[in-house]
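Sequence dictates fold. Below is an illustrative record:

_____
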Amino acid sequence: MQDRLVVSIVDEKGSKQFSLPRNASKLIVLGAVVVFVMFLASFFVMDFLMNQINDIVKQKNDAIAQYHSIYQKNAKLKNAIQQKTDELEAVNSKIDKLEDIVNIKSNITKYPQMTKVDLQSISNAHKLLLLNLIPNGDPLKDFQEKVKTSERIHPLRNIKGVEGGMDYLTNHKTPVLATADGVVVLVQENGKTGLGNVIKLTHSFGFSSVYAHLDTLAIKKGDFVQKGQIIGYSGSSGRSNGDRLYYEVGFLGNPLNPETYASWGFDNFDVIFQKEDGIDWKNLVWAIEDIARLQTLRVSSSEKYKKESL
């Protein structure tokens, strides 16, 4: 009996005794431990599976959010493509009239205006748009004097300067401003020419502007600039005997009278159309009206898209 474990069970019917081997208690304890371990392992497995499910749900939500973001971007791209298509169609419609808009002669100042412009029909909004796209006004706010280069003696070579340029005498490092919206097509630093540091901008309809003898440059080639934006600072680089800015306005590679365009603005808007510079301003004004219509279409399309997105 010493090697056996006796278990007694007593109830109303009497008592019963069971005899078990003494090591059965160890088996019971071991079984309880195994059950506890299995329960604990099941708990951790369930916790792991719940975390996995939460991660999958989070990934699903992220994927849905990314899909919506891509869908919205796609809609914006479609809208932008449509706008560019409209602009391209408008540009293509004007290509056939290019020869009517410009006179491609080596000396365009010898030819009279081809058509007259109905100035009364040009709205103030169209005037401002034209003044943003075509060089006008002085490229400096502060200067002491300006003189056409063809009317002064070169300070170092003792000969008359080039046609089509304007010298602005100013203080060192005076901010130089773009005279119209445009793209930077030339940036020359420490160049070998007498103009020193040079910036050239191209503008709409074949116009261009040049800024030279700069001390420092504030833009780089390929940049888009807006009218009035600082593009550099005046100096005396190149062949110059003092601080100045050399300024030039061109049209299809031919120099224009910079004095005319430097003095042109909203208050004397009509003056430019009285000059015989070989530009068919009437057709150019039509092109401006087309651009204004495209801008209106772009704004209305954008507002419509915003309303549809809400």
Remarks:
- The chain has two domains: 1-96, 137-269.
- The first strand starts at residue 4 and ends at 11.
